[in-house]
Amino acid sequence: MIIRYRFHLLLLILLLAFPFSGFAQTFSLQSISPADGQTGVSTVTQFVFTFNQPLAGSATPSLDLTGLAVEFELHPSNSELDNALATLSADKKTLTINNVQLNANTQYTLLVTRAISADSAIFAKPTFVTFTTGSALATGKISGKVTAPSGSVEGALVSANLEFLFQEDLYVGFATVDANGNYEISHVPAGRYNVIVYKDEDGNGEFAPEMGEPIGGYDPDQNLLLDPITLADGENKSGVNMEMKPSLPKTARELFNLLDPLVNGSAKVAAGGQGGNASLVSIVTIGLDSEGKSGIWFYSYKLATSDSLIGFAATDHLIVASSPTLDEGGLTPGDSLLTPLPDNWMDSDAAMQIALQNGGDEFLQNHPGSQVFLLGANLQPDSLFTPA
């Protein structure tokens, strides 16, 4: 009995010293409206996000959806939010987006990527609902397993993307990966899709493979190039397995040397299956470090037989191809951006050195936390580069 008494006394002392610290609620998303699987949603509706703790920010109605405590995306398009009004409940636990104007007979996915509480707690578990303004949702499914050479895959986001790389309405379905690496994307319409997995490791609500966050895709033949899958109406496609890992920073030419043999050395890839000798016309990245390297590069090729373009997003272990298109960015036949680059185009490390020597070094000294540059140019040997 002495032992039991001492145990109870010790427990009482611990509770007095650390009152309920082990029972604190984790900041979490309780519900989303419209609900997942809901049909017949009105074309003029509202989105409601309810959390278990007060959100950061003001309860004053806002016409501007930027800067909200909840970061979300609507797919297939955010244009339906142009006239929306955001309001926060009196207890600041519920954010409502009013006057959302949807298209009739359209399936949507509403994806929450991040939220911030009044106490600065971060919710960064991708959460989504799929609903429709029509009478029924698509019934197709894509499932598989995600692995990684290191780190946890739990909480990673899997997306089924239209094969065309550069169009706005890219995503058609999502899934989150469970602790065992399994995922299932539901409500997928018939179509041809790339399946990609990525993880927001720093919890900032963004997926940034260019900054070393892990990414992977369905590549069963392991030739670096993603293999699109074709889904029939109502089909359940299983075994879509992927490995996810960080991308190593590379210069533009280092990844070009991986990509170009695939583009011009394979009838499957070259010119979108049309065969032969596509020409490189542009190179862009969205996250260039001070050594002129990035985890992801975007390349555009002009087809040999027309003015159409085929685009590629490339990392050191993953390459995604688009379908051929002329209108990548409003281009027309004869546009100067369709002119092939010379073989001696300047690599990004040399371009970065020019930028650093012409003001970039001073900028980094004044802003030591700024290590990311944006580079979008033809990389001609005589191009002029200025600091981003």
Structure description:
By secondary structure, the chain is mainly beta. The protein has three domains: 28-135, Immunoglobulin-like (Sandwich), CATH 2.60.40; 138-246, Immunoglobulins (Immunoglobulin-like, Sandwich); 252-377, no CATH class. It has helices at 2-17, 252-265, 348-366, and strands at 29-33, 44-51, 70-75, 85-88, 94-101, 107-116, 122-123, 127-132, 140-147, 157-162, 171-176, 182-188, 191-198, 215-217, 229-231, 236-237, 242-243, 279-288, 297-302, 309-314, 319-321, 373-377. Strands 10, 11, 13, 14 and 15 form a five-stranded antiparallel β-sheet that branches. The model is unreliable at 1-23 and 376-388 (pLDDT under 50).
Strand content: 25-35%
Number of domains: 3
Number of strands: 22
Structural class: mainly beta
Main sheet overview: 5 strands, antiparallel
**Cα end-to-end separation:** 73 Å
Return Rg in Å.
24 Å
Low-confidence stretches at least 5 residues in length (pLDDT < 50)? Answer: 1-23, 376-388
Order of helices and strands: HEEEEEEEEEEEEEEEEEHEEEEHE
Task: Name the shape in a single word.
Answer: globular
Mean pLDDT, nearest integer? 80
Number of helices: 3
Give the fraction of residues assigned to helices: 10-25%
